[in-house]
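Hi all, long-time lurker, first post. I run a small reading group and we've been trying to get comfortable going from sequence to structure in the token notation. Rather than ask abstract questions, I figured I'd post a concrete chain and ask someone more experienced to write out its structure so we can walk through it together at our next meeting. Sequence below, copied exactly:
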Amino acid sequence: MDVVVLGGGTGGLVASHRLRRELPREDRVVLVERDVVYRFAPSFLWVLTGQRRPEQLSADLTRVTRRGIELLKPTRSGSTHTRRRSRPRGGRSRMTGS
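-- Answer (accepted) --
Happy to help. Here is the structure in token form:
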């Protein structure tokens, strides 16, 4: 089974790590994120006050591959945004888009 997690923010990272721990090794966990640098936005205030440096609040997302999570950086062609309807197996449909 392939599981795709859209977005490498805090929620996406937590979800992908949890899925990797709980799914069998033969199942793929793919994290899709445009920016390979994770920035912890709630801590930006510390940069403004001089208590932290920007590099202390960011991490390289390619490190997730060490834990068996695949990282996919999508490319965008053209400027047209599309909306798609996705339906999880046995669940309600949701609107997704870029």
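A couple of things your group might point at:
The chain has one domain: 2-97.
The beta strands are 2-6, 28-32, 37-39, 58-60, 70-72, 83-86, 94-97.
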